[in-house]
Design brief:
Elements: H1 2-9, E1 20-29, E2 39-50, E3 61-66, E4 72-76, E5 80-82, H2 90-97, H3 134-150, E6 154-165, E7 171-180, E8 183-186, E9 190-193, H4 203-206, E10 226-237, E11 243-256, E12 268-269, H5 278-281, H6 289-296, E13 307-311, E14 319-322, E15 326-329, H7 347-355, E16 361-362, E17 365-366, H8 369-375, E18 391-392, H9 396-410
Parallel strand pairs: 6-18
Antiparallel strand pairs: 1-2, 1-5, 2-3, 3-4, 6-7, 7-8, 7-10, 9-10, 9-15, 10-11, 11-13, 11-14, 12-13, 16-17
Helix pairs in contact: 3-9
């Protein structure tokens, strides 16, 4: 499992094996008469890394298996977006909500899993002479969208290292990594935290706690996004067998890089590069908790543009909270992605951040700016969190199979009345 961690976190990769992403189609599937319905990105699963970069591109490439498709493709990093980094246009979303399996074909729907949205995939010897039509793509695309959506309901801990029992006799297991919905986390990662946790109904059970399990109210500034450096991942199973995931770590917020904030004594951390220990980079195994944590406690990632890290929790004291309060991974370089390209110093961004408007509905759909700013740590972490992962499954394959089944049930044709 340490080799998986090294492969995931080396080479400054943005994405990780097993994550759900949006892959750009080689050619959009056009809708006749309404470009807002065009299918430009298709959801899929990263199933491997590839080391033959295209000339003039980034060195990181990924093998992506497209959902509801027999096709997989090698994608350069510049052609892939995080799952939370793309949102359907409003008109396309409305269109997809009405799609159902044809009654005369249900339940024999597996043929829809072999759709070919690409003109040419990695296994094709020749390009297809024609792209599929929008009408032909509509059902498999809808099914693929719902498969990606339902992955948000599940979580899977990775690489167990220790077990213990809490004071109330509830078994507790410790892990080094975590699949949470579409994303994958490791110890040492900086994650975005959902704001205003006091408004969440689960706060009574999974709010921020200190080592004595006392609920705490973090003194965050109202305009600053909150983050957690994960230093502990645990699973507690009650007597009924229900598994609950919690994380513990050091809390931060991103503040004005001038350093003028309310607490002049707050610790400000800046990014410093630090090499991976040789015992790990050379493929060695490490079984002790302390040696793994030496690697997990790598220095902080760079803060968001024009920001600095302000530590909120006391040094050496971890805060624990339910994993459902994690908004997602932090992507410090996402604004420079060729498919996004947002200048954090532009008047549009500065006006937005000053206005604190949050989620914006426009006549032509949802403004994507807040979503991308949230991924980059400039907006609070509530963006594009449709589901709260509450269901434990014991394999990523099981998660994908369950997501496909739930998605198929969503598309069952309505019963005639």
């Amino acid at each position: 499992m340490l080799s998986e961690l090294f492969n995931d976190t080396s080479s400054n990769r943005i994405f990780r094996r097993g994550e759900v992403v949006w892959a750009a189609l080689d050619e959009p599937i056009r809708s006749i008469g309404d470009s807002s319905l065009d299918i430009i990105f298709w959801p899929g699963l990263i199933v491997g890394y590839h080391f033959q970069p295209q000339p003039g591109s980034t060195p990181n490439c990924y093998k992506v298996q497209l959902f509801c498709s027999s096709q997989s493709q090698i994608y350069n990093e510049d052609q892939v977006l995080p799952y939370r980094g793309f949102i359907l246009s409003k008109v396309l979303k409305v269109k997809l909500e009405l799609v159902r399996f044809p009654p005369d074909l249900y339940p024999n729907v597996q043929n829809f899993c072999n759709f070919r949205p690409l003109r040419k995939s990695m296994s094709d010897l020749e390009s297809s002479p024609e792209l599929p039509t929008f009408d032909a793509a509509l059902l498999p695309y809808t099914w693929a969208i719902y498969i990606a959506l339902y992955t948000n309901a599940f979580f899977l801990p990775l690489s167990p290292w220790e077990s213990s029992t809490r004071s109330d006799d509830v078994p507790r297991s410790y892990f080094q990594g975590l699949f949470l919905g579409p994303e994958k986390f490791w110890l040492g990662d900086m994650v975005r935290v959902k704001p205003e946790s006091a408004t969440y109904p689960e706060r009574a059970h999974v709010g921020f706690m200190d080592e004595g399990d006392d609920l705490l109210d973090l003194n965050t500034t109202s305009s600053s996004p909150a983050f957690c450096r994960i230093e502990c991942i645990t699973i507690d199973k009650d007597k009924s067998g229900i598994a609950k995931c919690s994380v513990a770590g050091t809390m931060y917020e991103a503040v004005d890089s001038t350093g003028r904030f309310s607490d002049p004594d707050a610790a400000i951390h800046t990014f410093r590069s630090q090499p991976v220990p040789a015992s790990i980079s050379q493929g060695g195994t490490q079984s002790s908790k302390s040696s793994f944590l030496d690697f997990a406690h790598r220095d902080l990632p760079p803060p968001p543009p024009n920001k600095a890290w302000k530590q909120l929790s006391s040094t050496g004291k971890l805060l624990r909270f339910g994993a459902e309060l994690i908004a997602g991974r932090y992507y410090p370089t996402i604004l420079s992605h060729p498919l996004i390209q947002i200048d954090p110093t532009s008047p549009e961004v500065l006006d937005y951040l000053r206005s604190s408007k949050g989620y914006i509905e426009r006549e032509d759909g949802v403004d994507t700016l807040p979503f991308h700013l949230s991924l980059a740590g400039l907006e609070k972490g509530w963006m594009n969190c449709s589901f709260t992962p509450r269901t434990y499954l014991d394999s990523r394959v099981g998660i994908m199979q369950s997501s496909e089944q739930f998605a198929a049930k969503h598309l069952i044709p309505d019963t005639p009345t």
